[in-house]
Design brief:
The chain has about 325 residues and is an alpha+beta fold. Helices cover about 15% and strands about 25% of the residues.
């Protein structure tokens, strides 16, 4: 190893937090998934057979194969689309982690994702040794700024996904384990006539709803409870106890009802089942006073239906603002 005039420190590795919005209709959820192996008739086949690989651009026909030949397709997910855009910007492989694994068709205004890349100059004034990692020209140096980072990523994203904010965060920041609470909304169009231009963003019910009764019932969800009655079968969690911080129902237009709920964590389909149950209250099929009993019974059969994904939106994800030291302590 050669000698140099001053101590050499390895390049700093910046980590970035992204706030992401997407219209989830044409996505198969947030999380990347293994390519689906199919034959030319569109039927599943053994994944060990030789296959071509293709990503379906609009996410609508997930049975398309490359040039009509048997092959694999990659399901269109937000994580995959965003990770690819970031990779094109920083020009190196990155791992993008998201705070919430939203299901197929679920929307987001405030999803949080994070990645680490190279790109910062070595600290100090010394010239690096010849065997030091060569990272100049790759990654995204902090000095370039997050505004330019957001513009560069958005220039490579499809029209149904957008980065709406970014910041430089400690290297220990974990969008999953550092999350302290999340907020969702569920929007219902309650009218005899269906909506056209917002049909992908709301769930349509055909009769007016008693919003006052729904609001009374919503208050019963606040607190720490066993929400077993509001979890989909096969949720895969050891415990169904969760803490809901707030739950409310408001009328935002003549035919529009909005449910808002926040908590420290949610079970699979929990918000969609809560929305279905509150709508049954609004229809007069469940009394608001029955909600505490349904919660206490922890029996899925006694709660309302699971509403479709189209009305659900991840509104925000909240974090404490730890110092780098205590952030490291909380990282598993």
């Amino acid at each position: 190893m050669g000698r140099w005039s001053a101590p050499y420190a390895a390049p700093r590795v910046p980590r970035y937090k992204l706030i992401v919005a997407y219209e989830g209709t044409d996505f198969c959820g947030w999380q990347k998934q293994e390519p689906l192996a199919i034959n030319i008739a569109g039927e599943p086949r053994e994944a060990t057979q030789p296959a071509d690989t293709r990503e379906i651009g609009d996410g609508r026909d997930t049975r398309e194969t490359l040039e009509g030949r048997p092959g694999r397709i990659a399901l269109r997910t937000v994580q995959h689309v965003l990770e690819r855009a970031v990779r094109e910007v920083v020009r190196e492989p990155i791992l993008l982690l998201g705070a919430s694994r939203t299901d197929s068709g679920v929307h987001a205004r405030g999803q949080v994702a994070a990645f680490t890349c190279g790109g910062d100059e070595p600290s100090g004034d010394a010239v690096p040794p010849t065997d030091a990692p060569q990272v100049r020209g790759l990654g995204w140096p902090v000095r370039r700024g997050v505004t330019n980072l957001v513009r560069a990523i958005n220039g490579r994203l499809p029209e149904d996904c957008l980065v709406v904010g970014a910041e430089h965060v400690p290297h220990s920041f974990d969008p999953i384990s550092d999350c302290t609470s999340k907020g969702y909304s569920y929007t219902i169009h309650a009218a005899r006539e269906r909506t056209l231009f917002e049909r992908r963003l709301v769930h349509h019910v055909w009769e007016p709803l008693d919003v006052g009764a729904m609001a009374d019932a919503a208050a019963c969800f606040v607190g720490e409870h066993d929400f077993g009655a509001f979890a989909a079968a096969g949720h895969g969690r050891m415990s169904t106890v969760r803490r809901v911080l707030s739950c409310g129902v408001t009328r935002t237009g003549p035919d529009r009802v909005r449910i808002e709920i926040s908590g420290t964590g949610f079970l699979w389909n929990m918000v969609r089942i809560v929305a279905g149950t509150l709508t049954e209250v609004g229809r007069g099929r469940i009394a608001p006073a029955a909600i505490p009993k349904i919660i206490a019974g922890a029996d899925r059969r006694h709660a309302g239906p699971t509403f479709p994904a189209r009305g659900l939106c991840l509104e925000w994800v909240s974090y404490d603002q730890p110092t780098p030291e205590n952030a490291r302590e909380r990282t598993p």
